[in-house]
Specification:
Helix content is 53%, strand content 10%. By secondary structure, it is an alpha/beta fold. It is flat and about 75 Å long.
Length: 473
């Protein structure tokens, strides 16, 4: 029931944004009519733009907030951060409205533009932030009173776990943690925590416990000597995505580096591990950029594509295009399309990776692979949403099964759309065997942990240099 209540609270929060945006626009409309010297009531009833404005513009505001801020669990929001984000987003949104809808309005004096801008900004920001602060203050009180809780699992069973449990339990104000039990992280604990919480199992049982107990928050409180198991724990937890909030006890090194961010003055000292690979607005821009650049690329390169088609057809018998099943986003298989660069019986002995000077390549195929021209049909995969311009190169299930034996964290690559080019491609190049795949994996993991539009542009720039140098294989 509490989860449903939290979801209803999010809808109410979004609805209040809509109402405040409609109110702000209506008041601004009144202000504009009064500055024009028109009767306010008559001006409102006679102008159809008023009715359109109080319906469409608030919808645009809610969409704007959902993209660049996101409507998330209110009980996990910081009022200070919400205040700052509301100010910034209101400023950007009003600037957009000003230059698209207001700037061409008639004004008696130039200063009227300044009055219009600051009036609309004051109304939009003021009304929105006031209602948001009222709602978040009420949610904060409910959280502190223990009326809202999250099923919480503690990982660890020794001194660190006991100290953390005591710290949280002794807080004057609740943080919403409802501890259901703990995971014994080493199997050799002195069972000091078992005096407070039930032992639910070991790390090997973690995934099943989260599902059975409907765990919403996990706190990792393992000992320093157990940090070698941290990666294994996170690999399991990250499979649950945003459904499970992950926190960890920091070392003093983390505190000194400024990695510890406190949302609650009286809260326990914990690092919140965010799993958002990219902000929502960057994901949207990345997808728009994928579609636009792929479409433009196919149009501009159409003469070259036609030439390649003719050359492939003349190079050897067989189809012009080559398709192969690869594993994409969230482990879903798809067919990747390329210009055929090898003879038709290239894999009659089973799956094989290409290598420099590969005899299976046709003479024209070697030229294409050198300049990566064989990958131009990948733009089609990008257009239909199976791939991105930048992302880890997709692999076949046959090789993924081999890689996972040595590097289970490979599955993190499946969190994002595979790409035509990647950090691993730029820094390491094509892999000719599983060992080289494992080396390249390091760069692909680094990309996922540092995803941003700026990094995408940087990778695309270096990819162009690789193509111009003809250093593909």
């Amino acid at each position: 029931m509490l989860r449903k209540e939290r979801q209803i609270a999010i809808y109410f929060y979004a609805f209040s944004d809509y109402v405040m945006a409609a109110t702000a626009w209506a008041l601004f409309f009144l202000f504009r009519k009064s500055t024009e010297g028109l009767p306010v009531s008559a001006g409102l009833l006679a102008d159809e733009n008023f009715y359109l404005g109080i319906i469409l513009i608030p919808l645009a505001w809610v969409l704007f907030y959902s993209i660049f801020d996101g409507y998330k669990d209110l009980y996990r929001l910081s009022r200070l951060k919400v205040f700052a984000r509301t100010f910034f987003l209101s400023l950007i949104g009003v600037l957009f409205l000003f230059f698209t809808l207001i700037l061409d309005d008639f004004v008696k004096e130039y200063t009227g533009y300044y009055e219009s801008f600051f009036t609309l900004f004051g109304l939009q920001f003021g009304l929105t932030v006031i209602v948001r602060m009222i709602i978040l203050t009420k949610t904060s009180k409910r959280l502190k009173k223990g009326l809202v809780t999250y099923n919480t699992l503690l990982i660890g069973g020794d001194q660190n776990a006991v100290e953390l449990y005591n710290d949280v339990s002794s807080l004057k104000y609740g943080l919403g943690n409802k501890f259901l039990g703990f995971i014994d992280s080493n199997g050799q604990s002195k069972k000091v925590l078992s005096g407070f919480l039930p032992r639910l199992g070991k790390i090997e049982d973690l995934s099943n416990i989260i599902k059975e107990k409907q765990i919403e928050e996990v706190i990792i409180a393992i000992e320093t000597s157990e940090h070698n198991r941290l990666k294994e724990i996170l690999d399991i937890l990250f499979d649950f995505g945003e459904n499970v909030l992950v926190k960890i006890i920091p070392d003093m090194y983390d505190i000194l580096l400024g990695n510890v961010k406190m949302n609650h003055v009286f809260g326990a000292v914990l690092i919140e591990i965010r799993q958002d690979l990219m902000p929502a607005w960057q994901r949207i821009i990345k997808r728009l950029m994928d579609v636009l650049l792929s479409l433009v690329g196919l149009i501009i390169l159409s003469p070259l594509i036609l030439y390649i088609i003719i050359r492939v057809k003349l190079s050897s018998s067989g189809p012009i295009f080559y398709k192969q099943e690869r594993i994409g986003l969230h482990g879903h298989p798809f067919y990747i399309y390329k210009f055929r660069s090898m003879f038709t019986d290239a894999e009659n002995k089973g799956p094989q990776l290409s290598k420099e000077g590969d005899e299976r390549c046709t003479p024209w195929g070697q030229v294409m692979r050198k300049y990566r021209l064989d990958e131009l049909p990948n733009f089609y995969n990008v257009l239909i949403g199976e791939m991105s311009l930048v992302g880890p190169r997709p692999e076949r299930q046959f090789y993924i099964d081999q890689i996972i034996k040595y590097a289970p964290h490979y599955k993190h690559l499946l969190k994002v759309r595979p790409g035509i080019t990647s950090w691993g491609q730029v820094k390491y190049g094509y892999a000719s065997n599983v060992d080289e795949m494992l080396q390249r994996l390091k760069f692909d993991i680094l990309y996922i942990e540092n995803m941003s539009l700026a990094l995408d542009f940087k990778i695309m720039f270096y990819t162009i240099l690789v193509i111009l140098k003809g250093s593909g294989k």
